[in-house]
Design goal:
Elements lengths: L15 H4 L19 E7 L18 H8 L2 E3 L2 E2 L4 H10 L25 H7 L3 E7 L17 E5 L11 E3 L5 E3 L4 H15 L5 E6 L11 H4 L19 H27 L6 E7 L21 H4 E2 L1 E4 L8 E3 L3 E2 L3 H9 L15 H5 L10 E5 L2 E5 L3 E3 L5 E3 L15 H18 L22 E3 L6 E5 L4 E3 L3 E2 L9 E2 L7 E8 L3 E10 L8 E6 L2 E6 L28 E10 L2 E11 L7 E9 L2
Parallel strand pairs: 1-8, 1-9, 2-12, 3-13, 4-5, 4-8, 18-23
Antiparallel strand pairs: 2-11, 3-10, 6-7, 9-11, 14-15, 15-16, 16-17, 19-29, 20-23, 21-22, 23-28, 24-27, 24-29, 25-26, 25-28
Bound molecules: calcium ion.
Length: 611
């Protein structure tokens, strides 16, 4: 099944005028006559690059179960996602380019999918499917940004981007409660997905399994690591001096763990004789998260060059989609919503126009004539565009991707008409799609680590728990985050009466709320008096007892990236009840009396509407 590193294509460049037309695509038809509505299982890797797969030519990793999806189904040879996690997920969920959906970052609330967007889960739910998501969400945590408000009947996992604990991790259940399950995070979340499949085996289900790995921290079960600890890495990054081969080893070990979990899901389908009744999709959410072999392509995670946005994508539906075939026309994550709904014979929901197209005719017959199209990649205001034959990068350099897949030599001079056409297309797309930079409430321009202007919703009776992690708060005074990457950070260095932490909230329901804080505090510093307030309403309490557990430094296979802090066991301090009035305002936590050197470290505040 190994394909060439860069499969050549026999497609010729279509005439320029044709590429500017809106493609008129063959319509999908739903399931064939006599075939009932299929289940759908979507498997999503986090930070696996195109080059991390045997089907791409990687000889250093064994992924028999993932590979079997390609062997028994259709592979999209040129499939594009976004350069980072949250935008790809937004595009998968909506079928729309992420700048339209409110996603402008990966943390501090900027990863949230606008509430007026409807998702692929909304569509399947509306069609009578039971829907579940199990793993990393990364498109908003608080209701109604929460996955269970976005079309999923069931959810288990972590709603934030990166998660700091991979063993016995604290994870969120259906009701917004945080529970610890023993085991490795991918194994645990897959257990939940398998349970969901078994419970719903007699009715149509849509099961989204966004794996947490091979995203950092570099923590993998010992049984997987022992196969890689001393393994030679023979295929290297295009920038070999930048590659940490131990990280490569850990990533590939994580991939083999993930493969075993994919195998467990496929076995569960087979166990209930659902293999032929289920569409299985597998892809990753961005380019590789370290410099490692990626087929010679330029760029990695974070880049909108080919290597940052190209992913494998396999779709299997035995008996309906051909086995072992490859689709060569370019395609993208925005296509999955129209494609999967079409294959299932259901309708998308919502009024907003989709950017993606229905690929089902191509999947059923990969030789189907297909009009050329353009696929745009963007992040941070930079835009790159891919045609079937070329990529125009964000600096305006044009590359012939068939003869120069590594983007080594610009061909602007040899192909001025293509350059001009793609530049014009980028201008038009940017004007129509990219939002203007928005100032935040604090007067700062939106940027890395700066919260966006949408307040955090609190107090929906249908989901009374609101978790306010440090990630979504703003440290003031001497308070700092435990790490520069906010996603799994906590607030530290709270030493002054002038310090405070602020969450900009929008309270939906006036009423009484139970407030608690997950904290640690040196025993000698216990006893500080703190105050939680919103407007005129306030609640005071004491930080006690002291609780100062060690950091979990024994979980990691390799040292974690410096932007990610070590975690620890936080204790819940029940503060009591506070009255909150409906409306927007800053929820402020500050200290009134500090008897020791510090107040406490804060992981999160939890508010529960009392009904
Ligand atoms: Ca990712």
């Amino acid at each position: 099944m190994l394909s060439r590193i860069f499969a050549s294509t026999t497609l010729c460049a279509l005439p320029v005028f044709l590429m500017m037309l809106v493609p008129e695509l063959p319509a999908g038809e739903g399931p064939p006559a006599g075939v009932s509505r299929p289940n759908v299982v979507v498997l999503l890797a986090d930070d696996a690059g195109w080059g991390d797969y045997p089907t791409s030519g990687n000889c250093g990793v064994s992924l028999p179960h993932i590979t079997s999806i390609a062997q028994q189904g259709v592979s999209l040879e040129h499939f594009y996602v976004c350069p980072l996690c949250s935008p790809t997920r937004a595009e998968f969920l909506t079928g729309r380019y992420h700048p339209r959906t409110g996603v402008t970052g990966v943390s501090t609330g900027r990863e949230r999918l606008n509430l007026d967007e409807r998702t692929i889960a909304d569509a399947f739910h509306a069609a009578g499917y039971v829907t579940g998501a199990f793993g990393k969400w990364h498109n908003g945590s608080q209701w109604p940004y929460h996955p269970r408000a976005r079309g999923f009947d069931r959810y288990f996992g972590h709603t934030a981007g990166h998660w700091g604990e991979y063993f016995n991790a604290p994870l969120e259940n259906d009701h917004g409660e945080i529970v610890r399950r023993p085991g490795y995070i991918v194994d645990v979340c897959t257990d939940e997905a398998i349970r969901f499949i078994a419970e719903n085996r007699s009715r149509p289900f849509f099961c989204f399994i966004p794996f947490t790995t091979p995203h950092s921290p570099w923590a993998v079960p010992e049984e997987d690591w022992k196969r890689f600890r001393n393994k030679p890495i023979t295929q290297r990054s295009t920038l070999p001096d930048e590659e940490d081969v131990d990280v490569t080893r850990c990533v590939l070990a994580m991939m083999e763990n993930q493969d075993a979990n994919v195998g467990r899901v496929l076995a569960e389908l087979e166990k209930w004789q659902l293999t032929d009744k289920t569409i299985v999709v597998y892809f990753s959410d961005n380019g590789p998260n370290s410099w490692r072999w990626n087929g010679g392509m330029k760029g990695r995670k974070g880049s909108i060059d080919e290597g940052g946005v190209r992913s494998v994508c396999y779709l299997r539906w035995p008996g309906v989609l051909p086995a072992g075939r490859t689709v060569t026309p370019i395609a993208a994550v925005i296509d999955l919503l129209p494609t999967l709904t079409s294959l299932a014979g259901i309708q998308p929901v919502g009024e907003k126009p989709l950017d993606g197209v229905d690929l089902s005719p191509l999947l059923k017959a990969p030789d189907t004539p297909w009009p050329d199209r353009l696929i745009f990649s963007s992040w941070g205001g930079k835009v790159s565009v891919r045609s079937q034959t070329h990529r125009l990068d964000h600096d305006g350099n044009l590359f012939d991707m068939q003869s120069d897949p590594g983007q080594l030599t610009p061909v602007n001079d040899q192909a001025p008409e293509v350059t001009a056409r793609l530049k014009k297309a980028v201008e038009e797309w940017s004007a129509a799609t990219l939002p203007q930079p928005q100032p935040t409430n604090s007067g700062q321009r939106a940027g890395k680590g700066v919260p966006d202007s949408r307040p955090i919703p609190v107090g929906y009776p249908e989901f009374p728990v609101t978790i306010l992690p440090a990630r979504d708060g703003e440290p003031r005074g001497t308070i700092k985050r435990s790490s520069s990457a906010p996603n799994c950070s906590y607030f530290v260095n709270w030493t002054s009466l002038d310090d405070k932490m602020v969450w900009r909230v929008d309270v939906k329901t006036s009423g009484r709320y139970a407030a608690s804080i997950d904290y640690t505090c040196p025993v000698a510093d216990a006893g500080a008096t703190i105050e939680l307030s919103l407007g005129e309403n306030r609640l005071t309490g004491k930080v006690e007892p002291g609780w100062d557990p060690p950091l979990y430094t024994n979980q990691d296979t390799l040292p974690r990236p410096p932007a990610e802090s070590q975690m620890k066991e936080f204790r819940t301090l029940n503060l009591g009840e506070i009255q909150l009035e409906a409306g927007q305002g800053p929820l402020v936590l500050r200290a009134l009396h500090i008897p020791g050197q510090s107040v406490m470290d804060v992981r999160r505040i939890t508010l529960v509407l009392i009904q």
